[in-house]
Amino acid sequence: MTRSPHNPEYAGARTRPLFVVLLAGLLSLSVPAHADSEQDFLFFPSIEGFERFSDSDPANDGFEDHVMADFLYTLNSDRFRLLAEYFWSNKESELERLQAAWLISDETTIWAGRFHSISNYWASEFHHGVYLQTTISRPGLDEWEDNSGPMPSHITGLQLDQLFELQDGAGLKFGLVAGVAPTFAGEELVPFDMLDSNSGNESAFEARLIYQPQMLSGSQIGLSAARNEIAVDSSSSPDLADLDNIRQVTVGVFIDWEWAKWHLLTNWVYFDIDMDYVDARIKDDFVLAYVQAEFDASDKWTLFARSEFGFDEDDSPYLRLLPAFVAHRHMLGARWDFADSQALTAEIADTSTQGDDFTHDSFKELRLQWSAVFP
Amino acid sequence: MERRVPVIQRTPQILLLVTMLLSAESSWADREVVLVTSRDSAVESLSTLDIRKAYLGIAVLVGGEPVRAIRRRDDKQLNEIFLQSVMAMSLKSYERRILSLALKYGTPRPDQVDDAAALVGLLESSSRGIGYMWRTDAEGEDRVRIIGVLWRGR
Fold first, then answer.
1. Which of A180, A199, A223, A299 lies at a CB distance of 3.0 to 4.6 Å from A192, suitable for a disulfide?
2. Helices marked H in chain A — which ranges?
3. Structure pTM?
C-alpha cells in the first residue's frame, strides 16, 4: 500500500491535550509576576481538500480532507519569554513547541525546550502557521517527520541565537542547537517524546548562519549544517530488521529574497548518510532541493510555482526507507487574500513519491485550501 | 442654435474653482504625519531605525524600559503613509512580518487602536508609548507631545 502524507493510519498518535494544559498551567505559574508582562495568542485555522489522480496505480486515487488548527501562545516578561504551539487536525494532534527563552541581551537569546529544527528551513520559518506560507503544500525536503520528511524537524534541547548588527541596517544571525534527535521507526522519523525519556534517542547538533541585507526586512540568505545520530527501532519494520543506527550529516544553503513584486525561495541540502547494519555500513549521499517563485499580481492575488528535485536521490538506500517521501513535484498555484487575514489557495501539481522499490509512484494533485489567522 | 456663455459671465465660477484648487493644494501641502507620545512620557526622540524596530515588536529601550508602539487601524491614508514612509513596507508585507516574528520568536505584536481618542488614552496609560497622528489632530490634543515629523506633504 502506498502511504499518503495525509493518511491517518500513519499520523502520529500523540494526543495529550490534558498533559499540555497541565504543563502550560505549571509554566505560567512559574513565570515571575511582572507588571509589564505581555501575553499574545494566535490562532491559525485551515481547511484543505486534496484530490489525487494516480499515473501508476489507480487504487491510489481519491479525495482527502484536512482540517487543521494551530494555537500559539506567547508570554513576554522582562528578559523571559515563553512560547507554546499546539497543533490539532482531524488526523493528529501534537504539542509542537514548548520553549522558554532567557534574553541575555538584546542580541543574545538562549532557548530551552522542544522547538523546530533550524536546519529545516520551512519548519523554522513557517512552523504550522499555514496562512503565512503562500503555498498549500510544503516541499518534500522540509516536510514534517510524520509526513515522510527526510530530516528532523523537531529537536528537544538548547538553542543559542546570536545577532550581530552590521553597518547600514544589515545583520548576521547565528544559531546553534544541541539536543535530542528523532528515532527511526516504521517508515518515518519519530521526534523525541518528552514523556518517554528512555526512548533511546541520540544526539542532534545544528548550526545556522543567516545574512540579512536589511535586518528588519524578510530577505535573507543562509547556510545550515546538522549532524544527527538517529537510533533505529529495528522491530518496527522488516526493512529495518538489521539496521542499528543512521548517522545523518546535512549541509544546506537557502535564499529567501523579495524584489518588488517577486519573492524567491530556494533551499538546497546535501545529505551524507551512514547506515549501520549489523554486518555492514552502507554509505549514501544525495542532494535535495526546491525553487519556489511567487509574484504579487495585485494586493489580493499571488501567483506561485515550485519545482522540487534532487541529484542521486532516486536510488538512495536511505530514502527507500521513506516510501511516501515526495521526491519530485512541479507545482503551480494561485492565492487570493481577502477579508484582512483570510486566504483561498489552489494548487495543481505533478508529483512523485519515492516508492517502495526503485520505481516512483507518480500522480497529479489538486489542492484547495482556506486559511486564516486570528485575531 | 448653441448658446455661448460670455467669458465675463463665467469669471466668478472660474475664480471660485481656482480658489478651491489652491486651497486644497495648500491644505495637502501642509499635511504632516507626526510621531507622538504622552505629555509626561520619558521618550524624547527616536531614530527611524528605532521606530521601525518598535513597530515590529523588537525591543527598543528608553531609560531601561521598552518603548510601546501603538498602531492606528481607522485611518487608511494615515496608515499607508506611515507604512510606506517609515516602515518601507506595504500593509500586506507589514502584517506578514509581525505575524512571522510572533510565530518564530514570540515577538510581541504592537498594540492596535481604532481611533485617535483610543490612541491618546493608551498613550496616557504608558510612560513609553508612541503613536502616529496627523499634525492637525496632534496639535489639537493637549495630552500628547509631538516628538518627530514622520512625513511631510509635497
1. A180
2. 17-30, 121-126
3. 0.83
